[in-house]
Specification:
Histidine triad (HIT) protein; HIT family, subunit A; globular; 7 strands; five-stranded antiparallel β-sheet; alpha+beta
Length: 173
């Protein structure tokens, strides 16, 4: 019997057959918890990792990833089971290292805010000394500049390529 607040052990991702832009139709995909409307509107799916959906923020000014754990009701990292907390940080650090290597950024910012979007998500942002927000935070710095369709396709392909080479944790069975 599980106590209040405990979670059932992870038994692997549920899958469904669905297509996403840039993905072959019928590819098995994990069923994600519903994505916050603002995250869905401001970002694009890149890849599903063991715990998180990795997304690309639609802002040409920054190469910016967002990791969204596939756990219903998670608002804060401590809402996750201890095993999921460890995997969240491992995935965030793997994304940060891959983003830094791919972009040669001066600095990688990793942050959790949640003041506007309460669904737990981790920002991983490549920073350069010449970016419009440097050295301050990217949040609230000017107006996002949407990627044009060709630039979006290129950036998604680039993110998928460098993340595919990334070593990331496996979910416990």
């Amino acid at each position: 019997m599980m106590s209040a607040g405990s979670r059932a052990p992870y038994k692997g991702p549920a899958v469904r057959r669905q297509s996403r832009p840039g993905v072959s139709p019928g590819r098995p995909l994990r069923i994600m918890v519903p994505l916050d409307d603002r995250l869905a509107a401001d970002s694009h799916w890149v890849v599903d990792w063991p715990l998180c959906q990795v997304r690309l923020m639609d802002d040409a000014r920054f190469f910016w990833l967002v990791l969204v754990p596939d756990r219903a009701g998670a608002v804060e990292p401590f809402d996750l089971a201890p095993e999921d907390q460890a995997i969240l940080w491992q995935e965030a650090l793997a994304a940060a290292a891959a983003l830094k290597a791919a972009t040669r950024a001066a600095k990688i910012n990793v942050g959790l805010l949640g003041n506007i979007v309460s669904q737990l998500h981790v920002h991983v942002v490549a920073r350069r000394g010449e970016d419009v927000a440097w050295p301050g935070p990217v949040w609230g710095a000017g107006v996002p500049e949407r990627l044009d369709p060709a630039a979006l396709r290129r950036r998604l392909a680039e993110a998928r390529a460098f993340l595919a080479l990334t070593s990331r944790p496996e979910m416990p069975r």
